[in-house]
Design a protein that fits this description.
Keywords: Aminotransferase, Pyridoxal phosphate, Transferase. One of its GO terms (molecular function) is transaminase activity. This is Aminotransferase class V-fold PLP-dependent enzyme. Strands 2-8-7-6-5-3-4 form a 7-stranded mixed β-sheet, sandwiched between helices. It folds into 2 domains: 129 residues, Aspartate Aminotransferase, domain 1 (Alpha-Beta Complex), CATH 3.90.1150; 239 residues, Aspartate Aminotransferase, domain 2. The mean pLDDT is 96. It is built from 13 helices and 13 strands. The longest helix has 24 residues. It is globular, with a radius of gyration of 21 Å. The two termini are 35 Å apart. Strand 6, helix 9 and strand 7 form a beta-alpha-beta unit. Helix 4 packs parallel to helix 10, helix 10 crosses helix 11 and helix 12 packs across helix 13. By secondary structure, it is of the alpha/beta class.
Amino acid sequence: MPDNTLRAHDEVFWRTFADRYDSHPGPVNLENGYFGRMSRTVVDEYQRNIELINNSNSVYVRQRFEQSDNLDIRAQLAELIGVRAQSVAFTANASAGLQSLIRNYNRLQPGDQVLISDLEYDTVKGAMRWLARHRGVEVIEIDHAHPATFDSLVATYREAFIRHPKLKLMALTHVTHRTGLVMPVQAIATQAKAHGIDVILDGAHALGQIEFDLEALGIAFAGYNLHKWIGSPLTLGFLYIAPQRLADIDPDMGEMHYPVNDIRSRTPYSTPNIPALMTLPLVFEEHRALGGAAAKGARLNYLRNLWVKAVRNLPGIEVMTPDDPRLYCGITSMRFTRHDDQQLMVERLLSDYNLFTVVRTGAACGPCIRITPGLTTMADDMQCLVRALNELR
C-alpha cells in the first residue's frame, strides 16, 4: 500500500497529530465542511501577526507588505497549486472569487444561455441568475439523477449541451457541498469545450483534500477557499484565471488600483485581512509537511469509509454519495428513509449521541444529513456514528 494509505489507518499518528490542535469540550464535530481548524502553531502565528499589524499599523503595510511580502505569499500559493503567480488573486473566500468571475465574464450576449445544476452552491446559483436579470441571458437549470454514476453525470451534461445550443457559460462544482459528490471535472470540461462553453469551477471543498491539476482538468476560471482543508485563518480564498483568458474577465466594476493586465484588478480593491495573509507561509509549510492533499485526502476517505461501509446496506439508511472512488471524498451525506424530518434526526444525533452534523437541502434527490470528518477526527468517533445510525434507523 502507498505510504499515505498506510498512514491513513495509523490512529497513533493521527492522535498525535490531533494533539497539535486546541478545542473546547463539546460534541464530536462531524461538520468539518463549514471551515477547517488552525493548528496551535498557526493560531500563535496569527496572533503575533495581529499584534504586529496593530502596533506598526500602516508603516509596515505600506513599506513592506504591499511592496513585497504579499507578492511572496502569492507566489507561494501559486506554487502550492502548480500555477503561475500571475494567475491567482486573493479573495475573502471562494464565493467572493466566484461572484467576481461570474459578474465580470464578458463573453455573453443577450439571448445566450448559462447553465447551473441542483448541486451548485446557492451563492453561485444566485450570481448566475443575476446574469439573467442584468445581461439578458437565459438560465438553464438541470437536476442530476440519483444515485449518480460517473457516466450518468457526464451524460447529463452532454445531453444539456446538445439540447441548449446557445449555452456559453456554466458553473460546475468540484466537490458538492450538499452530498459530497465529486464531479468528473475533466470529462465534463472536455465536453463543454467541444461545445464552446466556458466553465467556472467552484473548488471551495476540493482544495486540500483532492489532488488536481487545473491545466489538465481544462479549467480556465475557478474560485477556492484556503480556510477549509488547507488550515488557514478565516477570510482567505482566491480566484484563478488562466493567463491566456484574463481578457475574458473584466476588471471588477472598473477597478483601477491595478493595471488591466493584472489579475488583482478582477476583484474588489479593499483592505484585506493582512495578519491572516501573513500567516499563510506557515499554513503552507504545515500542509506540505503532512503530505499535502494526498495525505489529507487518504485520511478523510478512510474515515468516511469506516462509517459508510458499515451502514450502506442497512434498512432505513440511504447513503447519498456513491462508492466509486472517483466520485467521493471525505464529505458524504445520508438520510433516514423511515423518518421524514432529517433535521429532527440531526437533533437526535446531537442530544442522544453527542454527534454534531448538519442538514443540507436543495438537491433534487431531497434533504440529507452531511457528515464530514476532520483531520482531528478519530476512528472511534466514526464507530460512535455507526452505532448511532444503526440505533436511530
